[in-house]
Specification:
Length: about 100
C-alpha cells in the first residue's frame, strides 16, 4: 500500500525533531510547505509503480542525493554570503573534496 501524503508529512515532522529545519521568515506556513513537498514526492513515487523495486530504490536515492547536494550548496552559499565560517562537518567534507581533486 503506497504511503499517503499526510503520512509522509507526519514522518517529516518526526525527522525534523532530530534535525530541525530553519524556515527563517518565509511567508508560508511550515505545514503547508511540508504538505506541498509530501504531495509532490507521493506523486513521484506513484509514477514509478511500474518500476522494479531496484529501479524505484535507485531513483529515490538519486532524488535524495540531488536534494542533499542542493542543500549543501545552498548552505555553503549562504555562509559565504554572510561571511560566516562553515561548521566542522562542512569544512571536513569540503576538505575531503579538495584532497580528492589532487
Amino acid at each position: 500500500m503506497p504511503i499517503k501524503p499526510e503520512q509522509l508529512a507526519s514522518l517529516m515532522r518526526e525527522v525534523e525533531q532530530e534535525d530541525p529545519i530553519d524556515f527563517a521568515d518565509l511567508p508560508f506556513p511550515e505545514d503547508d510547505l511540508r504538505e506541498l513537498v509530501a504531495n509532490h514526492l507521493c506523486e513521484m513515487a506513484a509514477s514509478m509503480e511500474n518500476f522494479s523495486s531496484e529501479d524505484r530504490l535507485m531513483t529515490l536515492l538519486a532524488v535524495s542525493a540531488k536534494l542533499v547536494l542542493e542543500n549543501l550548496v545552498l548552505h555553503v552559499q549562504l555562509l559565504r554570503r554572510h561571511g560566516i565560517p562553515a561548521g566542522d562537518n562542512v569544512e571536513a567534507l569540503l576538505s575531503r573534496l579538495r584532497n580528492n581533486k589532487k
